[in-house]
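[09:14] KT: can someone run the structure on this one? pasting the chain below
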Amino acid sequence: MNLLPQEIIRRKRDGETLREEEIAFMVRGLTDGGIGDGQIAAFAMAVFFQGMSMAERITLTRAMTQSGTVIAWSGLDLPGPVVDKHSTGGVGDKVSLVLAPIVAACGGFVPMISGRGLGHTGGTLDKLDAIPGYNSTPDLALFQQTVRAVGCAIIGQTGDLAPADGRLYAIRDVTATVESIPLITASILSKKLAAGLDALVMDVKTGSGAFANQIGMARELAESIVTVANGAGLPTRALITDMDQVLGRNVGNALEVAEALAFLKNDNPDPRLREVVLALAREMLDLAGLSADPAAALDSGRALEVFAHMIHVLGGPADLAENSILYLPIAAVVKPCLAHQSGAVRTMDTRRIGVAVLAMGGGRRDAADDINPSVGLSDVCNVGNRVEVGQPLAMVHAASEADANAAIAEIRSAISIGERAAAKPVILEQVAGPGSGA
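[09:31] RB: done, structure tokens below
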């Protein structure tokens, strides 16, 4: 059959269902450059407006997975299942830093391929890059050796994994087609399938600080990912979790690493963060067929040992856990953001808080921007907290007085205070795959 990109684009533009060979043809053109950016952009826009059936999404995901290297773990004789978690992103979301070592301490093997910050949401790799010497882009051999020896490794995507996704995402990013659930689904899952997983758990966030700011969109995305992943042979579940407030107490790369270390030491962890971490850990372990107790792995200190081992094997300091103050960068200016009235914290525009940190240099406006790992917020209040006039809503860590003052103004306007307030539950829904007993 003589396939033409423009005919495939036309059929999708008109709402028709594409055949497997047509989707495979488009993915081959993405990977080898045989189809130009203009036609790929038109294809993405057609999918954006017309959507894709679940069968089309499965075909697209499989083709993108096969566009590059698919990691095989069988040769390493791992004495446990290979399992991972992926988050759709949020503000203060340092879950990956503590979840991977907890699951590893329970007998799972976690090859976590993470991303950098996107817009107002922080990226796990940017947090790890705040640790001197940590190699977030090791070669495949070191990645696999680390997973085998430690139980987990958190790294960035290499060009060998799902390269079709790398090109398609870059085109989507500049053509206003990022917010397409079929394309988001294929983008996430092609990388996870290429990682050779036995099981996957998704953390789909919803609320003012999330990409899916409405529960309906979060539910649609979770159901799409779970259905497509299971259809492609990867057992997957999802939790929909709240992002109508900062997750944990700190926002910003080095500050979130510090909070992760405190969490692993059981040093007064934020209750909402602990609930999310343990819920995701239980889902991962259950789906992978492991019966260990993640709370015990955390409370005993075993997870902290795994995290410290991972950091050292991948080039970071051996004593980070004991002496983090010697290694994590500290901001030049630290100022409180003080409440101007007394009352209960009613709501939080979490996206604006993430943008405030980005504006201080904690994120990127442009892909080429450098990040200042020291800036951010600590001791952020929770929705439902009672505050008095003059009490800090958060501590602002900035590179200059001007940056700190600008962030204080933004944060104060993003947090509303009134007479009564109640926080949403942090775990909103579970989405289980077909045939799951969960």
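[09:33] KT: thanks! The longest helix spans residues 215-231.
[09:34] RB: yep, looked fine to me
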